[in-house]
Amino acid sequence: MEAARVDDLGKGFAVVAEEIRKMANESEKSVKEIDNILSEIKKSMLLISEKVNNTAALGERQAAATQEISASMEQLASSATEIEKVAEII
């Protein structure tokens, strides 16, 4: 009788141990999946950061080019005014 009880307890323990093993394996798989997901997020964030920096640099170059164009337009307007004055004298 006592042996039967011990045998039943042993079987119950084996079932619990197997379930714990399954949970441990699933936890390990989940940790690996999370690690992969985080790695992909990190790669994406680095790429986004690079794109933002490139866009900012492009914006700065465009702003500088716009200032140069504006200065050139002012010079042209000034030259046109001077030509107009010379034309009035002649």
Q: Helical region count? A: 1
* N→C terminal distance: 132 Å
Question: What fraction of the residues are assigned to beta strands by DSSP?
Answer: under 5%
Determine the mean pLDDT.
Answer: 90
Judged by helices, strands and strand pairing, the structural class is mainly alpha
Order of helices and strands: H
Radius of gyration: 39 Å
What is the makeup of the main sheet? none
Tally of strands: 0
Residue runs with pLDDT of under 50 for 5 or more positions:
none
The helix content, as a percent range, equals over 70%
**What general form does the structure show?**
rod-shaped
Keywords: Transducer
Protein name: Methyl-accepting transducer domain-containing protein
Domain Methyl-accepting transducer: 1-86
GO molecular function, one term: transmembrane signaling receptor activity
Walkthrough of the structure:
Helices cover 98% and strands 0% of the residues. The chain contains one helix and no strands. The termini are far apart. It is rod-shaped, with a radius of gyration of 39 Å. With 90 residues, it is mostly helical. The chain has one helix at residues 2-89. The mean pLDDT is 90. This is Methyl-accepting transducer domain-containing protein. InterPro entries: Chemotax_Me-accpt_rcpt, MCPsignal_dom. GO terms for molecular function: transmembrane signaling receptor activity. Pfam families: MCPsignal. Residues 1-86 form the Methyl-accepting transducer domain.
